[in-house]
Amino acid sequence: MRIGELSARTGASRRSLRYYEQQGLLVSTRSSSGQRCYDEEHVRRVALIQVFLAAGMSSRTIAQLIPCMTRPSTDRARRALAAMDEERSRLSSAIDSLAAAREALDHLIDVNRKFLANVADDSAPDGPDRHSGLFPVGRPDAARAQQIALAAILRDPPGPGR
Amino acid sequence: MRIGELSARTGASRRSLRYYEQQGLLVSTRSSSGQRCYDEEHVRRVALIQVFLAAGMSSRTIAQLIPCMTRPSTDRARRALAAMDEERSRLSSAIDSLAAAREALDHLIDVNRKFLANVADDSAPDGPDRHSGLFPVGRPDAARAQQIALAAILRDPPGPGR
DNA sequence: CTAAACGCTGACATCGATGTCAAGGGCAAG
DNA sequence: CTTGCCCTTGACATCGATGTCAGCGTTTAG
Lengths: 162, 162
Prior knowledge:
2 copies of one chain form a homodimer. Chain A is mainly α. Chain A has a domain at 3-66: Multidrug-efflux Transporter Regulator, Chain: A, Domain 2 (Orthogonal Bundle). Helix content of chain A is 64%, strand content 2%. Chain A contains 6 helices and 2 strands. The first copy, chain A, has a two-stranded antiparallel sheet with strand order 1-2. In chain A, a hairpin with a 5-residue loop joins β1 and β2. In chain A, α5 (74-121) packs antiparallel against α6. The longest helix of chain A is centred in the middle third of the chain and has 48 residues, at 74-121. Chain A is elongated, with a radius of gyration of 25 Å.
């Protein structure tokens, strides 16, 4: 199969497929006229690459993880294993970050819902001006809920080392 | 407190703090000579921004979620709520992506471990050359495990619309 | 008063995956 | 042979958060 079909079957653009090859993630055989030829194996390979890329891995990292173009070697496997472990923990903490953000978002949603409900109850909910409150809320208990939410977020502070 | 202290307390660089302000995520009062002044509220605000940024939200999105610089308005709250719901589902699917990648990685780790174990058992494990096998493995059962793993990954195909 | 440390603005650089365009070659159907 | 579609390589553009530097003002400690 040529690049167009692989592209259609994987959803990766032709451009991306050539890029993957350039980065050493994919190897293609070439037809006599220089066109790339792929087989079923490549479809699966590309799918895996997409999974990893979607997870925010760099192509550099993926290239370490998937010794695709060379013969297996014990050395390579050992180094790959190390990279995999490292990457696994990176993924885990990324998941934690996302979960934390989602939780924070849930609190904001909650507070926002309460705010709207209060407005429905009472069209002039609070004092005139909350200059820079973290989230505009008309009720002290909502403000308190927000404080608790933030405390939960900040329990595990982001830390200076980005 | 001035920008240096806020930076030290949040771990965000001065550059980033100015950027947040420029993007409308942060409002500062200014001293008579034009220096930015912050209070405790801002520390929490920046922490929240960091949580969201770490989750891959764009500053544009965050600006929609946190109506920080204006007085609360019902309209704004409604629109923010819509954006929040959208963003929440984006976060959820991002978490799913990461989890899928981690699972795939776990399988690779497993296969790799088996490969190394085999090598230890038997220093010439398999045929001489597996030109483009998805993962270099010397045992048919490992190959089978890998197939199953990939099937699991591909159960929910990435789809053409990136 | 002076020097050091800090702050301000503005500009330019970076990284990585991808889009897009140009100029040309390959191949199949009419 | 021509037309149309697919392929090739190479180059340049993009986006967003951040780094970094320059040139200049402010604040603070000695």
